[in-house]
């Protein structure tokens, strides 16, 4: 297939690109002709509200951003497609539909996928938390079935905790278990962990810690040689793994396959490529929506400067970030540094922040 040339490809409608595009609209900046936003779907799901959607607190319309009006407002063409292969030396990418695109400049904001158990005989239905469109399909099937089932959430971070609570609320017939390879919420303060465990226990969600599930066979979740639990379905919320095509792209990546970038979000090997959000490895920035949003704000200035061969702005990640974990009942747990708290007011504050993000990026 003949390649289509573009001056700038914004690959992925992640948090960072949404924020950058919104800033461009506010500042009256129009990227050059031949700029596209490449997205597998015409909508971008907002992960911060996904657990609330499952818990029945939001509708799907409230949690997804329509990309066409946003693109129109900043004069960027929306192209629906998904990268299957990237060749950074040739500045060329192949999409899953075989289309070939070439670029002068590329900004990657393609997120991550949760790592899965190494061996799987297919006897348990797997539902990775990302991409959310796929997860949503599994959840709809479970809801319709409305039957007793063993549902296991794999993961020990905030997303696993929130999803377990939300699924327990949405599927009252299901027996929920949460399995993590280390301690639950290990990066958080002791106070927050204590509160989180209390909530899980009160809601009857079984916990297994220090249990790494490495294989699935005959309907069992297996750790080493130990059969841990039988399950009908497994939600994978195990954190962030890089998109597999990044490691073979020729871009300098870390050992986990994330694109290594400078504080200007510029690839360490290919200066015409930027990367932000979960797909990037910037020293000091965690893989979370909070850092992706901050990077997006910097990106709104970095991209125009890069195109004009100007000095690039630097973004230095903040040492701490506020974390708010939804508890599926309108409340939230809060963590900042060593400080933690919980309750309805924090839930209202989280809703205010999340709805604010959606409001800012929804263009009529
Ligand atoms: C259930 C859940 C709840 C979470 N809640 C929070 C929270 O409250 N706060 C927080 O800070 N973090 C939260 N996170 C983590 C957060 O989702 C990620 O860190 C954040 O989404 C990263 O944003 P991003 O900008 O990297 O891209 P994302 O927002 O992940 O978006 C990536 C985009 O790239 C697109 N894409 C993917 N593959 C391709 C491809 N091959 N080609 C083209 N496009 C592609 C996707 O369709 C998507 O639009 C949560 C995660 C989950 C799973």
Automatic annotation (TrEMBL):
It comes from the Bacteria. It comes from Glaciecola punicea ACAM 611. Coiled coil: none annotated. This is FAD/NAD(P)-binding domain-containing protein. Pfam families: Pyr_redox_2. GO terms for biological process: aerobic electron transport chain. Residues 12-290 form the FAD/NAD(P)-binding domain. The lineage of its organism: Bacteria, Pseudomonadati, Pseudomonadota, Gammaproteobacteria, Alteromonadales. SUPFAM superfamilies: FAD/NAD(P)-binding domain (SSF51905). One of its GO terms (molecular function) is NAD(P)H dehydrogenase (quinone) activity. InterPro entries: FAD/NAD-bd_sf, FAD/NAD-binding_dom, NADH-Q_oxidoreductase. Its cofactor is FAD. Keywords: FAD, Flavoprotein, Oxidoreductase.
């Amino acid at each position: 297939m003949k390649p289509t040339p573009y001056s700038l490809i914004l690959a992925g409608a992640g948090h960072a690109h949404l924020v950058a595009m919104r800033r461009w609209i506010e500042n009256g900046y129009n990227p050059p002709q031949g700029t596209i936003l490449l997205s597998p779907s015409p909508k971008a799901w907002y992960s911060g509200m996904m657990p609330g959607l499952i818990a029945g607190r939001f509708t799907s319309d409230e949690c997804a951003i329509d990309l066409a009006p946003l693109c129109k407002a900043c004069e960027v063409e929306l192209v629906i497609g998904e990268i299957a292969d990237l060749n950074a030396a040739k500045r060329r990418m192949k999409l899953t539909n075989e289309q070939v695109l070439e670029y002068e400049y590329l900004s990657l904001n393609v997120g991550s996928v949760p790592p899965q158990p190494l061996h799987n005989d297919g006897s348990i239905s797997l539902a990775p938390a990302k991409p959310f469109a796929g997860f949503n399909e599994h959840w709809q099937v479970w809801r319709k079935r409305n039957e007793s089932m063993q549902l296991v959430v794999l993961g020990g971070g905030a997303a696993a905790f929130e999803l377990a609570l939300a699924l327990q609320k949405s599927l009252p017939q299901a027996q929920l278990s949460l399995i993590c390879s280390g301690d639950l919420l290990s990066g958080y303060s002791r106070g927050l962990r204590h509160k989180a465990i209390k909530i899980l226990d009160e809601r009857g969600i079984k916990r297994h810690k220090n249990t790494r599930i490495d294989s699935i066979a005959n309907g069992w979740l297996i750790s080493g040689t130990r059969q841990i639990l039988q399950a009908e379905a497994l939600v994978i919320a195990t954190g962030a793994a890089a998109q597999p095509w990044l490691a073979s792209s020729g871009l300098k990546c870390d050992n986990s396959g994330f694109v290594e970038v400078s504080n200007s979000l510029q690839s360490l090997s290919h200066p015409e490529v930027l990367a932000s959000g979960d797909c990037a490895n910037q020293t000091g920035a965690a893989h979370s929506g909070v850092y992706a949003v901050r990077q997006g704000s910097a990106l709104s200035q970095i991209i125009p400067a890069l195109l004009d061969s100007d000095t690039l702005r630097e973004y230095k990640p903040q040492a701490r970030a506020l974390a708010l974990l939804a508890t599926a009942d309108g409340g939230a747990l809060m963590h900042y540094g060593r400080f933690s708290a919980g309750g309805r007011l924090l839930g209202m504050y989280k809703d205010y922040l999340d709805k604010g993000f959606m409001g800012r990026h929804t263009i009529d």
